[in-house]
């Protein structure tokens, strides 16, 4: 299997660490000199650039949060004049001000490079026809994948998001082999393809899925329905967009991080202290090479763990595991922490449920209630009621044992829950003050 940049991806770890250290020192000097925001924060912490001499010193540096980025809206964290910025993107956040990021020409080069790495790792190359079904616009998903795919020589079909019937027509008629979108939209496309009798007639062989969390159960479901190898890739606009990490086809078990560009740590989100290697916590990222908007210790809120085990593919980069959720997605229901991904993995253990679900939270009196709505398969719905009851009982038992709380369940008819064309909305929080996400 091809490796896009063997020198960088298979570099001995000690050598990579030396380069990371040099780039970290350079970065800290640069932001201290050029950006009042970082200088003030470092001064407040009693830190000078000279205090950062090794990767271990990273944890001395202050964190940067989404709120910090918003407070500096729109260009306060830009480290170069606008005349050197050739592209702007912004976060897909639905609440408050968006966070704005800029790219110099060299940033765009590096972005295409890191995307080319994970695209190649997923087995996609110049023989592929790739349909990009992310929305083109301020969202980083489409442009990041687009230039990465062009870089590896794939034939890019910039379908953008929406209009599912047209997506399928293009997919079929253009002989698309690689589908690029969110896993939830891929589910929707798979379902629509089945309905239109296209399921066995597509040439798809790979899915490059990212931008939201999904489970291994969802992967199996997509692979079976679309006849593909489904791969996961991760990134966020504040750091670059897609391209921070992606899975290799050989292992499909954790995403290789482009460590020469992004320094990753995991912290305990309560104590803010780094955890031991391999432990789960919040991912914090420092950009080592970004010019326009370098960022130090960005708190992603994404919950995952790092895996330093050597990988069968030969890359020496450490991997990050599937994101199990965001710390701000974590639901607290009657004092118990619940991640939507836990619900998803239970639902997809059952053959008669579809990967379309919604979690509804309400407050009744002083008590929080959680209802899980899930679509059941066409076959089961038109079958006998007794089968529905059996499924309902089994699902309720399993949800209770995995989540540790009692939940209500509503089995709904196929095609009744809203479909997403981008990032899925899995939670409707109707409690007082509860954020509706
Ligand atoms: O979603 C960038 C991206 C586009 C990544 C396309 C991959 C593919 P934002 O809109 O800023 O950027 O959202 C970033 O999305 O902090 C995670 O919570 C979530 N996310 C991104 N990729 C994954 C993934 C893009 N593979 C936020 N698994 C991040 C789980 C993901 N969550």
Short précis:
31% of the residues lie in helices and 24% in strands.
Q: Can you name the CATH architecture of the largest domain?
A: 3-Layer(aba) Sandwich
Describe the largest sheet: 9 strands, mixed
Distance between the termini: 40 Å
Side-by-side strand order of the widest sheet: 4-3-5-6-7-8-9-14-13
What best-fitting shape do the alpha-carbon axes yield?
globular
Could you describe the 3D structure shown?
- The protein has 437 residues and is an alpha/beta fold.
- It folds into 2 domains: 1-328, ANL, N-terminal domain (Rossmann fold, 3-Layer(aba) Sandwich); 331-433, GMP Synthetase, Chain A, domain 3.
- Helices cover 31% and strands 24% of the residues.
- The chain has 12 helices and 21 strands.
- Helix 9 links the parallel strand 6 (206-210) and strand 7 (229-236).
- Helix 5 packs across helix 6, helix 7 (164-173) crosses helix 8 (183-195) and helix 8 (183-195) packs parallel to helix 9.
- It is globular.
- The two termini are 40 Å apart.
- The mean pLDDT is 95.
- 5'-O-[hydroxy(phenylacetyl)phosphoryl]adenosine is lined by residues 91-92, 139-141, 210-213, 232-237, 241-242, 300, 302, 323, 326.
